[in-house]
Design a protein that fits this description.
This protein has about 400 residues and is α+β, with helices and mostly antiparallel strands. Helix content is about 25%, strand content about 25%.
């Protein structure tokens, strides 16, 4: 595990990044390497797992604090095995010695992995399971109208063979002979300043006070196994890109009777070729002909709920925007909708025939300056600025 990359490097952020910066970086990376957007790409799949692992640590304030101070060893007991339990010279004490656990606790607020006092976290206490984060890619229209998606999730469940005890059937965990069931061991070291006493979690039982002599073969003594679950999630109408849903209790099983974690579903919305979204409003560009712009016309306009007819008034200029009230996207709370904005562009015909050119020229000769408001205003400004020269 020595080659494990720094979690900040994985997300491409600085060590002092804020919670919002961490979340934003995760979403960008998760979207970039998501399996749905990189089918068959093993490298992207591995990077996606690496990004999720980094976010799991850095999004948790306690885990992040341990990682910032001790690196991977602070959040992964198997990394750099050996723990923090060595003796420290330089702390004076009398004949009774000095308990380094109490010293560390005063600095780190409860042991922080040093296990110094009776107030340290109880490894046998109920603990909530970890949250699981998955990403799902949906189309623009699926986001507008809502949809159902089936997710394949791997999570940690209680082993059915041993009931979570970790011990083989017919056996049970036994009192640790190393610590006598206390979960911690005390060592002493003589120094020129006196005897230093250090209390740390028992390395044999990991601070639990119990050892398993006959581990369950199904879970290798961990009490939990990785299981694949198929979960259907209802994605509500109006959800936007990078928003997430929380499925309560669908994450990893809790430890020692603790509650399950949640399944966090991060939604990626693929862009649409026709529609563009601005919160709950929708924008669409509709081309009209030169004649339709001049004399007005009824044109067909696409909306997220189907086609509608709209009357373009005569003299419509290219780039004019019309508003269709209530034709946008449904609000997430289900009360009301946004609007749709229709921008028209006047398309100038090409590849005219000789007769068409003559007809157009004849038509142009019938027009006067009053027919062109923009040109009229432009040449007036030009004259005011430069005169008749």
């Amino acid at each position: 595990m020595a080659d494990k990359r720094d979690y900040y490097e994985v997300l491409g952020i600085a060590k002092g990044a804020s919670e919002d910066e961490i979340k934003s970086a995760y979403r960008k990376k998760a979207k970039k390497y998501h399996p749905d957007l990189n089918p068959g790409n093993k490298e992207a799949e591995e990077k996606f797992k690496e990004v999720n692992e980094a976010y799991e640590i850095l999004s948790d304030s306690e885990k992040k604090a341990r990682y910032d101070q001790f690196g991977h060893a602070g959040v992964d007991p198997s990394y750099g095995a050996g723990g923090f339990g060595g003796g420290f010279n330089g702390f004076g004490g009398g004949a009774g010695g000095v308990d380094l656990g109490d010293i560390f606790e005063s600095f780190f607020g409860g042991g922080g992995g040093f296990g110094g006092s009776s107030r340290r976290a109880d490894p046998n206490a109920p603990r909530r399971g970890n949250d699981i984060r998955v990403s799902v890619a949906i189309s623009f229209m699926e986001a507008v109208h809502g949809c159902k998606k089936t997710l394949n999730v791997t999570r940690q469940d209680t082993c059915t063979e041993c009931g979570g005890s970790g011990a083989a059937k017919g056996t049970s965990p036994e009192t640790c002979p190393e610590c006598g069931g206390s979960g911690s061991v005390t060592t002493q070291q003589r120094t020129p300043f006196g005897v230093i006493q250090n209390r740390r979690p028992c390395s044999r039982c990991g601070g639990k006070g119990k050892v398993i002599k006959s581990p369950c073969k199904h879970c290798s003594g961990s009490g939990r196994v990785a299981t694949n679950k198929t979960i259907e999630v209802s994605i509500p109408a109006g959800i936007d890109d990078d928003q997430s849903l929380a499925l309560r209790g669908q994450g990893d099983n809790g430890l020692n009777g603790g509650p399950n974690g949640d399944l966090i579903v991060i939604v990626t919305v693929r862009p649409d070729a026709m529609f563009e979204r601005d919160r709950f409003d929708v924008w669409v560009t509709v081309p009209i002909t030169y004649t339709q712009a001049c004399i007005g016309a009824d044109v067909i306009v696409p909306t997220v709920d189907g086609k509608v007819q709209y009357s373009v008034p005569e003299g419509t200029q290219s780039g004019t925007t019309f508003r269709l009230k209530g034709k946008g996207i449904q609000y997430l709370n289900g009360k009301g909708k946004g609007d749709q904005y229709v921008k028209v562009t006047v398309e100038i015909p090409r590849k005219l025939t000789k007769d068409q050119r003559k007809a157009l020229q004849a038509f142009e000769e019938t027009l006067k300056d009053d027919n062109y408001e923009q040109r009229k205003g432009f040449f007036k400004s030009l004259k005011d600025k430069f005169g008749d020269k």
